[in-house]
Prior knowledge:
By secondary structure, this protein is an alpha/beta fold. Helices cover 34% and strands 23% of the residues. Helix 2 links the parallel strand 2 and strand 3.
Amino acid sequence: MSSLDFQVAICTYARERTIGKATLATLKRAQVDPDQITLFVPSAKQRYDYEDVLGQNTYRIVVTSPGQFRSRQMAHRHYVSKGMEGVPLIQIDDDIWGFWELVERPETKAGWDTIHYEGTLEDMAKQGYGLASSLGTGLWGISFAQNYFYMSNHASVGNMLICGGFQGVYAGDDIFIGERRTYAESAEEDSETSCLAFLKYGKVARLQYFSLDLKDIEPGGIRKEITDEGYVKTEQEAIRAREMTNVAAREMIAQRYPGLVSVVWMDKKDGFLGNGKQQALKYKRLGNTSIPRNLIEREFLKQG
C-alpha cells in the first residue's frame, strides 16, 4: 500500500523535559519524520524553554495560547492557514511513552497479552484512516485501556469516547472549530469531540488492539496550567481541582447531548473527590458493532 501523508500535532504545556523522552522518542521509534511533527505551545516564553531543551530548528514549534482545547483549536486553524485543510492529522499528548499492542499468547490463561508495538505509526494510521474512510467518519482512535483484559482484537464502531490522548482526525474539521463548538474549556473536551463527531458522521471508530503506554503523572500539563493561573498552590490540589472541573463538565455534556451520553457514579475508595465515588460518562449504544482485526489488516495493510 502506498505511503500515507499525515501530520502529527502535539499540544503541550510546560513539559519540555518530558516530551523528548516520551512522545517524541515514541514517534521516532515509530519512524515519524520530524517534518511531520508540530509542537503547539502556549507562549513565546515556553517556546524558548522547549528550544533550550530540544534544540532550535529540531522540531516545528508554533505559539498558540494556554488551555489544552484552545491550543488544539488554534492548531487546526494553523493547518488551515497553511493550505492543509483536510490533511490527515494525528493529535497526540505530550507524555506518551509508547504504544501497546495486543498479541495472542495461547500458553497464558487469558490467551492474549500486550507487548510494546514495534511497527510504524504510518501502519497504524493506514488502519485507522482506512477504516474511518470506509465507514464515512472523521474521527478514530485507539483503546485507552492500560490492562489487556479490556482490549480486544477488533475495532469498535458506533457511539463511544475517542480519548484525547490519541485521535486520528482531519485538519480543520468543524467538530473542532465549527459554530457548534462553543465550549472551549479543556475539561472533557474529548467527550464533546466524540459526541459532535457522532452527530456529524453517525459513528466513530476505535482500534481496540492498540493502546497508549502511560506512566505516573508527569509534571506540567493541565495541572500546571491550573497552578500557574493561581487557582491552587500544590500539585495535589490541582489534581483535585481538575477532577472537580471534570465533574461539572460531564454534567454539562450529559445535558447537552442527552441522547448520546449520561452520567454514572461508581464506587472507588481512592476517588479524587474523597467521597468513595468516581464519576464517568456512559455512552449509549447506538448501532454499535465490531470489525475483526484480521479483516482490517488484510484490507488496509496489503502490499501493492
